[in-house]
Amino acid sequence: MDFQFPDRVQLGLYPTPLTPATRLSEALDGPEIYIKRDDLTGVTLTGNKIRKIEFLLAEARQHNAEVIITCGGAQSNHARTTAIAARQLGMRTHLVLRNNGGKSLDGNLFLDRMVGAEITFVSAEEYERVDDRMQEIAAQYEKEGIKAYVIPEGGSNALGAMGYAFAMKELADQIKKSKQTFDAIVLAVGSGGTQAGLLIGKMLFQVPINIIGINICDDAAYFQNRIRSILQEARQRFSLPAQLLSESIHIVDGYVGKGYGLSRLEEIKTIKQVAELEGLILDPVYTGKAMYGLKDLIAKGYFQKDQKIIFLHTGGIFGLFPKRNLFF
Ligand SMILES: *Cc1c(COP(=O)(O)O)cnc(C)c1O
Protein backbone atom coordinates (compact mmCIF):
# COMPACT_ATOMS: atom_id res chain seq x y z
CA MET A 1 0.00 0.00 0.00
CA ASP A 2 1.14 3.49 -0.79
CA PHE A 3 1.50 5.20 2.54
CA GLN A 4 3.13 8.49 3.33
CA PHE A 5 4.80 8.30 6.73
CA PRO A 6 4.73 11.45 8.83
CA ASP A 7 8.01 13.36 9.37
CA ARG A 8 10.69 11.56 11.29
CA VAL A 9 14.07 12.54 12.64
CA GLN A 10 16.44 9.58 12.45
CA LEU A 11 18.57 9.15 15.56
CA GLY A 12 18.88 5.36 15.83
CA LEU A 13 21.01 3.03 13.71
CA TYR A 14 19.13 1.00 11.10
CA PRO A 15 18.47 -1.56 9.88
CA THR A 16 19.02 -3.51 13.09
CA PRO A 17 20.25 -7.07 12.39
CA LEU A 18 18.01 -10.12 12.12
CA THR A 19 20.16 -12.99 13.37
CA PRO A 20 19.59 -16.69 14.10
CA ALA A 21 19.92 -17.84 17.72
CA THR A 22 21.13 -21.33 16.85
CA ARG A 23 22.24 -22.59 20.25
CA LEU A 24 19.17 -21.22 21.99
CA SER A 25 16.88 -22.83 19.40
CA GLU A 26 18.64 -26.13 19.93
CA ALA A 27 18.47 -25.90 23.72
CA LEU A 28 14.75 -25.15 23.70
CA ASP A 29 14.14 -27.90 21.15
CA GLY A 30 11.36 -26.01 19.44
CA PRO A 31 11.01 -23.69 16.44
CA GLU A 32 14.00 -21.97 14.89
CA ILE A 33 14.43 -18.67 16.74
CA TYR A 34 15.77 -15.52 15.12
CA ILE A 35 16.39 -12.31 17.03
CA LYS A 36 15.49 -8.89 15.64
CA ARG A 37 18.16 -6.85 17.38
CA ASP A 38 16.39 -3.65 18.32
CA ASP A 39 18.71 -3.55 21.32
CA LEU A 40 21.26 -2.38 18.73
CA THR A 41 19.51 0.87 17.81
CA GLY A 42 22.42 2.62 19.54
CA VAL A 43 24.41 2.44 22.78
CA THR A 44 22.56 5.05 24.82
CA LEU A 45 19.45 5.02 22.62
CA THR A 46 19.20 1.21 22.85
CA GLY A 47 15.78 -0.38 22.53
CA ASN A 48 12.38 0.04 20.97
CA LYS A 49 11.54 3.49 22.30
CA ILE A 50 13.80 5.41 19.95
CA ARG A 51 11.80 4.26 16.93
CA LYS A 52 8.69 5.91 18.38
CA ILE A 53 10.54 8.97 19.64
CA GLU A 54 11.91 9.71 16.18
CA PHE A 55 8.37 10.50 15.03
CA LEU A 56 7.34 12.24 18.24
CA LEU A 57 10.38 14.53 18.36
CA ALA A 58 9.90 15.43 14.70
CA GLU A 59 6.47 16.75 15.65
CA ALA A 60 7.88 18.46 18.76
CA ARG A 61 10.35 20.25 16.53
CA GLN A 62 7.61 21.36 14.14
CA HIS A 63 5.89 22.87 17.19
CA ASN A 64 9.13 24.64 18.14
CA ALA A 65 9.17 22.88 21.50
CA GLU A 66 12.05 23.63 23.84
CA VAL A 67 11.09 21.19 26.59
CA ILE A 68 9.86 17.61 26.19
CA ILE A 69 7.70 16.32 29.03
CA THR A 70 7.23 12.60 29.48
CA CYS A 71 6.83 9.97 32.21
CA GLY A 72 7.53 6.43 33.40
CA GLY A 73 8.95 4.38 36.25
CA ALA A 74 12.22 5.41 37.89
CA GLN A 75 14.02 2.95 35.60
CA SER A 76 11.99 3.83 32.51
CA ASN A 77 13.76 3.01 29.23
CA HIS A 78 11.37 5.38 27.50
CA ALA A 79 12.26 8.29 29.79
CA ARG A 80 16.01 7.68 29.36
CA THR A 81 15.72 7.41 25.58
CA THR A 82 13.64 10.59 25.40
CA ALA A 83 16.02 12.53 27.65
CA ILE A 84 19.06 11.58 25.56
CA ALA A 85 17.40 11.93 22.14
CA ALA A 86 16.00 15.35 23.07
CA ARG A 87 19.49 16.58 23.97
CA GLN A 88 20.76 15.34 20.62
CA LEU A 89 18.31 17.79 19.05
CA GLY A 90 19.13 20.59 21.47
CA MET A 91 15.98 20.23 23.57
CA ARG A 92 15.51 19.76 27.32
CA THR A 93 13.41 17.14 29.09
CA HIS A 94 11.20 17.20 32.15
CA LEU A 95 10.45 13.68 33.40
CA VAL A 96 7.65 12.70 35.77
CA LEU A 97 8.86 9.45 37.34
CA ARG A 98 7.04 7.04 39.61
CA ASN A 99 9.04 6.56 42.75
CA ASN A 100 8.56 3.15 44.36
CA GLY A 101 11.67 3.50 46.46
CA GLY A 102 13.70 3.14 43.25
CA LYS A 103 15.45 6.50 43.38
CA SER A 104 18.96 5.04 43.48
CA LEU A 105 21.20 6.75 40.97
CA ASP A 106 21.71 3.72 38.77
CA GLY A 107 20.88 2.37 35.31
CA ASN A 108 18.47 4.53 33.32
CA LEU A 109 18.03 7.09 36.07
CA PHE A 110 21.76 7.69 36.13
CA LEU A 111 21.68 8.50 32.42
CA ASP A 112 18.62 10.76 32.86
CA ARG A 113 20.68 12.74 35.34
CA MET A 114 23.76 12.65 33.13
CA VAL A 115 21.95 14.59 30.40
CA GLY A 116 20.49 16.97 32.95
CA ALA A 117 16.83 16.00 32.71
CA GLU A 118 14.57 17.84 35.15
CA ILE A 119 12.92 15.15 37.28
CA THR A 120 9.69 15.29 39.28
CA PHE A 121 9.19 12.18 41.40
CA VAL A 122 5.60 11.25 42.23
CA SER A 123 4.11 8.48 44.37
CA ALA A 124 2.46 5.46 42.73
CA GLU A 125 -0.87 6.99 43.75
CA GLU A 126 -0.12 10.37 42.17
CA TYR A 127 1.15 8.59 39.08
CA GLU A 128 -2.38 7.36 38.35
CA ARG A 129 -3.14 10.86 37.09
CA VAL A 130 0.21 11.39 35.41
CA ASP A 131 -1.35 12.70 32.17
CA ASP A 132 -2.96 15.58 34.09
CA ARG A 133 0.27 16.18 35.94
CA MET A 134 2.22 16.44 32.68
CA GLN A 135 -0.37 18.90 31.30
CA GLU A 136 -0.01 21.03 34.46
CA ILE A 137 3.77 21.07 34.08
CA ALA A 138 3.38 21.99 30.39
CA ALA A 139 1.04 24.85 31.33
CA GLN A 140 3.62 26.09 33.83
CA TYR A 141 6.30 26.22 31.12
CA GLU A 142 3.95 27.94 28.70
CA LYS A 143 3.27 30.58 31.35
CA GLU A 144 7.00 31.27 31.41
CA GLY A 145 6.96 31.57 27.62
CA ILE A 146 8.62 28.19 27.08
CA LYS A 147 7.05 25.89 24.50
CA ALA A 148 6.52 22.36 25.84
CA TYR A 149 5.59 19.09 24.11
CA VAL A 150 4.07 16.20 26.05
CA ILE A 151 4.77 12.56 25.13
CA PRO A 152 2.49 9.96 26.79
CA GLU A 153 3.81 6.93 28.69
CA GLY A 154 5.98 4.69 26.51
CA GLY A 155 5.51 7.05 23.54
CA SER A 156 2.50 4.85 22.84
CA ASN A 157 0.08 6.97 20.85
CA ALA A 158 -0.74 6.83 17.13
CA LEU A 159 2.27 8.93 16.11
CA GLY A 160 4.69 6.92 18.26
CA ALA A 161 3.30 3.67 16.88
CA MET A 162 4.44 4.82 13.43
CA GLY A 163 7.94 3.88 14.61
CA TYR A 164 7.00 0.21 14.53
CA ALA A 165 4.95 0.45 11.36
CA PHE A 166 8.20 1.75 9.86
CA ALA A 167 10.19 -1.05 11.56
CA MET A 168 7.82 -3.61 10.04
CA LYS A 169 8.82 -2.38 6.61
CA GLU A 170 12.46 -2.79 7.55
CA LEU A 171 11.79 -6.30 8.84
CA ALA A 172 9.72 -7.25 5.77
CA ASP A 173 12.69 -6.31 3.57
CA GLN A 174 15.01 -8.44 5.69
CA ILE A 175 12.62 -11.39 5.58
CA LYS A 176 12.38 -11.08 1.82
CA LYS A 177 16.15 -10.97 1.47
CA SER A 178 16.56 -14.03 3.69
CA LYS A 179 14.31 -16.05 1.36
CA GLN A 180 12.77 -17.70 4.41
CA THR A 181 9.29 -17.63 5.83
CA PHE A 182 8.64 -16.74 9.42
CA ASP A 183 5.51 -17.73 11.30
CA ALA A 184 5.48 -15.31 14.19
CA ILE A 185 7.04 -12.32 15.90
CA VAL A 186 7.14 -12.61 19.69
CA LEU A 187 7.58 -9.46 21.75
CA ALA A 188 7.20 -8.01 25.24
CA VAL A 189 4.25 -5.65 25.73
CA GLY A 190 4.37 -2.84 28.29
CA SER A 191 2.29 0.02 26.93
CA GLY A 192 1.13 -1.44 23.62
CA GLY A 193 2.66 1.01 21.14
CA THR A 194 5.15 -1.42 19.69
CA GLN A 195 2.55 -4.11 18.98
CA ALA A 196 0.12 -1.52 17.62
CA GLY A 197 2.81 -0.26 15.25
CA LEU A 198 3.70 -3.76 14.08
CA LEU A 199 0.03 -4.42 13.34
CA ILE A 200 -0.20 -1.21 11.31
CA GLY A 201 2.94 -2.19 9.39
CA LYS A 202 1.67 -5.70 8.84
CA MET A 203 -1.44 -4.33 7.18
CA LEU A 204 0.31 -1.59 5.21
CA PHE A 205 3.03 -3.84 3.80
CA GLN A 206 1.02 -7.07 3.78
CA VAL A 207 3.42 -9.13 5.86
CA PRO A 208 1.91 -12.56 6.48
CA ILE A 209 3.16 -13.10 10.02
CA ASN A 210 1.56 -13.62 13.42
CA ILE A 211 2.30 -10.94 16.00
CA ILE A 212 2.28 -12.38 19.49
CA GLY A 213 2.61 -10.03 22.45
CA ILE A 214 3.52 -11.23 25.92
CA ASN A 215 2.28 -8.74 28.50
CA ILE A 216 4.65 -7.90 31.35
CA CYS A 217 2.05 -6.08 33.44
CA ASP A 218 -1.77 -5.86 33.61
CA ASP A 219 -3.60 -8.51 31.54
CA ALA A 220 -4.59 -9.50 28.00
CA ALA A 221 -7.94 -7.66 28.04
CA TYR A 222 -6.27 -4.46 29.20
CA PHE A 223 -3.78 -4.52 26.32
CA GLN A 224 -6.30 -5.57 23.71
CA ASN A 225 -8.29 -2.46 24.61
CA ARG A 226 -5.26 -0.25 24.77
CA ILE A 227 -3.84 -1.45 21.46
CA ARG A 228 -7.25 -1.20 19.82
CA SER A 229 -7.55 2.41 20.89
CA ILE A 230 -4.09 3.23 19.51
CA LEU A 231 -5.15 1.59 16.22
CA GLN A 232 -8.36 3.62 16.21
CA GLU A 233 -6.45 6.83 16.78
CA ALA A 234 -3.97 5.88 14.04
CA ARG A 235 -6.75 5.04 11.63
CA GLN A 236 -8.27 8.49 12.05
CA ARG A 237 -5.06 10.46 12.10
CA PHE A 238 -3.44 8.74 9.14
CA SER A 239 -6.59 7.82 7.18
CA LEU A 240 -5.84 4.10 7.34
CA PRO A 241 -8.34 1.55 5.98
CA ALA A 242 -10.97 0.13 8.32
CA GLN A 243 -9.41 -3.29 7.79
CA LEU A 244 -6.88 -2.25 10.45
CA LEU A 245 -9.50 -2.63 13.15
CA SER A 246 -10.40 -6.14 12.12
CA GLU A 247 -6.85 -7.38 12.78
CA SER A 248 -6.88 -9.70 15.76
CA ILE A 249 -4.74 -8.50 18.65
CA HIS A 250 -2.91 -11.49 19.98
CA ILE A 251 -1.73 -11.24 23.60
CA VAL A 252 -0.54 -14.25 25.57
CA ASP A 253 -1.18 -13.65 29.26
CA GLY A 254 0.40 -15.56 32.14
CA TYR A 255 3.93 -14.20 32.33
CA VAL A 256 3.55 -11.07 34.47
CA GLY A 257 4.95 -13.13 37.36
CA LYS A 258 5.38 -11.11 40.54
CA GLY A 259 4.29 -7.91 38.84
CA TYR A 260 5.77 -4.99 36.91
CA GLY A 261 9.50 -4.71 37.46
CA LEU A 262 9.59 -7.66 39.87
CA SER A 263 11.50 -10.80 38.94
CA ARG A 264 11.02 -14.50 39.57
CA LEU A 265 13.90 -16.96 39.77
CA GLU A 266 12.88 -18.63 36.48
CA GLU A 267 13.09 -15.27 34.69
CA ILE A 268 16.53 -14.53 36.13
CA LYS A 269 17.68 -18.02 35.11
CA THR A 270 16.38 -17.47 31.58
CA ILE A 271 18.32 -14.21 31.26
CA LYS A 272 21.47 -15.99 32.46
CA GLN A 273 20.88 -18.94 30.12
CA VAL A 274 20.45 -16.74 27.04
CA ALA A 275 23.51 -14.69 28.02
CA GLU A 276 25.66 -17.82 28.25
CA LEU A 277 24.28 -19.55 25.15
CA GLU A 278 24.17 -16.60 22.79
CA GLY A 279 26.12 -13.72 24.32
CA LEU A 280 22.79 -11.91 24.16
CA ILE A 281 21.81 -9.73 27.11
CA LEU A 282 18.11 -9.45 27.98
CA ASP A 283 16.55 -7.20 30.62
CA PRO A 284 14.61 -8.12 33.77
CA VAL A 285 11.49 -5.98 33.19
CA TYR A 286 10.52 -6.79 29.58
CA THR A 287 12.60 -9.06 27.38
CA GLY A 288 13.55 -11.47 30.18
CA LYS A 289 9.88 -12.04 30.96
CA ALA A 290 8.95 -12.37 27.30
CA MET A 291 11.79 -14.84 26.71
CA TYR A 292 10.75 -16.87 29.73
CA GLY A 293 7.22 -16.83 28.28
CA LEU A 294 8.49 -18.00 24.90
CA LYS A 295 10.47 -20.77 26.56
CA ASP A 296 7.44 -21.92 28.50
CA LEU A 297 5.20 -21.78 25.42
CA ILE A 298 7.69 -23.89 23.49
CA ALA A 299 7.78 -26.43 26.34
CA LYS A 300 3.98 -26.58 26.20
CA GLY A 301 4.01 -27.28 22.45
CA TYR A 302 2.64 -23.91 21.37
CA PHE A 303 4.91 -23.88 18.30
CA GLN A 304 5.84 -26.61 15.82
CA LYS A 305 9.45 -27.62 15.41
CA ASP A 306 9.49 -26.78 11.72
CA GLN A 307 8.35 -23.22 12.36
CA LYS A 308 10.55 -20.15 12.36
CA ILE A 309 9.90 -17.31 14.75
CA ILE A 310 11.37 -13.90 15.41
CA PHE A 311 11.93 -12.70 18.95
CA LEU A 312 11.96 -8.90 19.00
CA HIS A 313 14.72 -7.77 21.35
CA THR A 314 13.35 -4.45 22.54
CA GLY A 315 16.42 -3.49 24.61
CA GLY A 316 16.40 -2.49 28.26
CA ILE A 317 19.97 -3.36 29.27
CA PHE A 318 20.31 -0.40 31.67
CA GLY A 319 17.51 -1.87 33.79
CA LEU A 320 19.79 -4.82 34.58
CA PHE A 321 22.30 -2.89 36.63
CA PRO A 322 20.01 -1.89 39.51
CA LYS A 323 19.02 -5.59 39.70
CA ARG A 324 22.55 -6.98 39.91
CA ASN A 325 21.90 -8.48 43.34
CA LEU A 326 19.32 -10.88 41.91
CA PHE A 327 21.97 -12.51 39.75
CA PHE A 328 24.93 -13.16 42.01
C1 LIG B 1 8.91 -0.19 26.71
C2 LIG B 1 9.57 -1.48 26.47
C3 LIG B 1 8.86 -2.58 25.95
C4 LIG B 1 7.38 -2.55 25.66
O1 LIG B 1 7.05 -1.76 24.56
P1 LIG B 1 5.61 -1.07 24.51
O2 LIG B 1 5.56 -0.40 23.21
O3 LIG B 1 5.58 -0.11 25.67
O4 LIG B 1 4.58 -2.12 24.68
C5 LIG B 1 9.53 -3.76 25.74
N1 LIG B 1 10.84 -3.88 26.04
C6 LIG B 1 11.56 -2.86 26.55
C7 LIG B 1 12.98 -3.09 26.88
C8 LIG B 1 10.94 -1.63 26.78
O5 LIG B 1 11.65 -0.62 27.30
SS class: alpha/beta
Count up the helices.
11
Neighbour order of strands in the largest sheet: 1-2-10-7-8-9
Which molecules are bound in this entry? Answer: pyridoxal-5'-phosphate
Q: Unreliable segments (pLDDT under 50, ≥5 consecutive)?
A: none
Global morphology: globular
β-strand percent reads 15-25%
Helix content: 40-55%
How far apart, in Å, are the first and last alpha carbons?
51 Å
* CATH fold type of the largest domain: Rossmann fold
The average pLDDT score comes to: 97
Topology as H/E string? EHEHEHEHEHHEHEHEHEHHE
CATH top level of the largest domain?
Alpha Beta
What does the largest sheet look like? 6 strands, mixed
How many structurally independent domains?
2
Computed CA radius of gyration, to the nearest angstrom: 19 Å
At CATH level 2, the architecture of the largest domain is 3-Layer(aba) Sandwich
The counted number of beta strands is 10
Structure description:
The structure is a single chain. With 328 residues, the protein is α/β, with parallel strands linked by helices. It has 2 domains: 18-47 and 156-326, Rossmann fold; 49-154, Rossmann fold. 42% of the residues lie in helices and 16% in strands. It has 11 helices and 10 strands. The strands form 2 sheets. A 6-stranded mixed β-sheet has the order 1-2-10-7-8-9, sandwiched between helices. Helix 9 links the parallel strand 8 (210-215) and strand 9. Helix 3 packs parallel to helix 4 (107-114) and helix 8 (193-204) crosses helix 9 (220-237). The longest helix has 21 residues, at 158-178. It is globular and about 60 Å long. The model has no long low-confidence stretch (mean pLDDT 97). Pyridoxal-5'-phosphate is lined by residues 47-49, 77-78, 154, 156, 188-194, 283, 286-287, 314-316.
